Amino acid sequence: MPSQYIPIATFALLAAAFPAVCFAVLQRFRGNLRATDRIAELVEREPSTENSPRPAHSLRFSIVAMIYVIFAVAIVFLFPWAIKLSQMGWYGMIVATVFVGILLAGYAWAFRMGALSEN
């Protein structure tokens, strides 16, 4: 039984090591990149909207982005269901139909509220 968890433990170690390795590489090469201080200063400064060459993005952009992320995460939940559908039978089909129905109801609500329209 414990040998079945080796791939999961390996993946968890790799997932934990990736940010640490990226951070170490960044710290190693940071001495050569003195522009990062200037970039940090520009990012921390309050943006001026009166002389800005580009307008600030609207709230609708953020709403559409959040809706996209929600539906992308929902698709992640549908892949295991699709693989095990034959083993779950009608129960799995009903549960997945309810799940997709809730997602479609949320999409319809967002569309009705105007979050996905151009105006």
Number of domains: 2
Tell me the CATH topology of the largest domain: Methane Monooxygenase Hydroxylase, Chain G, domain 1
Helix percent reads over 70%
Number of E strands: 0
What is the distance, rounded to the nearest whole angstrom, between the alpha carbons of the first and last residues? 57 Å
- DSSP helix count? 4
Q: Rg, please? A: 23 Å
CATH class of the largest domain: Mainly Alpha
Beta content comes to: under 5%
> What name goes with the CATH superfamily of the largest domain?
NADH:ubiquinone/plastoquinone oxidoreductase, chain 3
The appropriate CATH architecture of the largest domain is Up-down Bundle
The biggest sheet, with number of strands, parallel, antiparallel or mixed sense and barrel status, is: none
Please write out the topology.
Elements: H1 6-29, H2 35-44, H3 59-83, H4 85-112
